[in-house]
Amino acid sequence: MIKIIYRRSKCIGCGSCVEASFRRWRMSGKDGKANLIDARNKNGYHQVELNEEEKESAYKAAAVCPEKIIVIQTKK
Ligand code: SF4
After folding, report:
1. Which of 1, 6, 23, 76 is paired with 37 by a 20 to 30 Å CA distance?
2. For the whole model, what pTM was predicted?
């Protein structure tokens, strides 16, 4: 199991995460920031747990984010 932790307030709306992982990321039409699909907001840190099959695209999104606000946590 892996977890994405996303600090949404720091997003600059570049859209790179959506290109890297369209299944999990979408740009918001409201404020122009990225939304992490199915995530829960815990004090500004949006978090979602994923299955192994989404691991590769999750790491891709984290790698392309210029703000480095997408963090991947691995859980046993
Ligand atoms: S790549 Fe990072 S800064 Fe760009 S839209 Fe996605 S979360 Fe925001």
Report:
1. 76
2. 0.95
